[in-house]
Write a structure and sequence with these properties.
Low-confidence stretches: 1-34
Number of domains: 1
Oligomer: single chain
Order of helices and strands: HEEEEEEEEEEEEE
Mean pLDDT: 83
Structural class: mainly beta
Distance between the termini: 31 Å
Strand content: 35-45%
Largest sheet: 7 strands, antiparallel
Length: 188
């Protein structure tokens, strides 16, 4: 019974791996490049929603985050052939205080990522839609990377909940994919 319910509620196999440098098991190597916290979310399902206006919907298969002392680095990777840097857009929702009762719908900050054209990414405090900074985006063949200075996120403590929504022009504002598929990922 529980298996049937879980198979309906969890359409994708999502792996979350969170490593703490201070409490990682000895057999798990944690490089100093990973800083304070490292997490990866993988989605092996082909679950991007189709839209007739988009030739191939972007299908996010990996979101990785490394929290360092000065910044939070995000890596986004897409299913081969599904990432078009000229049309794909991402929004990272951040619940900085891990309290769903605060912020806008529980989200205090968003990072709006524009992989093409040198526009970069906008870091926005959701209360009042205030842009706290603009940062560079590194575009790759299968995705993009962005590093957010923690000072733009209200000097958080590096623990937060997050999710990534994927869009594509001209289908904006329709969400074509989200990772994780349900809820947010908690970084402790």
């Amino acid at each position: 019974m529980i298996r049937q319910i879980a198979s309906r509620l969890i359409p994708a196999f999502v792996t979350v791996c969170v490593l703490w440098t201070s409490s990682a098991p000895a057999q798990t190597p944690v490089s100093s490049a990973h800083g304070l916290v490292h997490a990866e979310i993988r989605d092996t399902s082909v679950d991007a929603l189709p839209d007739v206006r988009v030739p191939v919907s972007p299908d996010l298969v990996l979101a990785a985050v490394d929290v360092g002392t000065a910044d939070v680095a995000f890596r986004f990777r897409f299913r081969p052939g599904s990432f078009d840097r000229s049309t794909t857009r991402l929004t990272v929702d951040l619940d900085i205080d891990q309290n769903a009762a605060t912020g806008v719908a529980g989200v205090e900050y968003q990072v709006h990522v524009f992989p093409a054209g040198g526009r970069g990414a906008d870091v926005v405090r959701t209360a009042g839609s205030i842009v706290t900074g603009k940062i560079a985006v590194t575009s790759l063949e299968d995705g993009c990377d962005v590093s957010v200075p923690r000072r733009l996120l209200g000097e958080d403590d590096g623990r937060f909940d997050f999710r990534v929504s994927v869009y594509a022009e001209p289908a904006l504002p329709i969400v074509l994919d989200v990772l994780p598929d349900i809820g947010l990922v908690r970084l402790q």
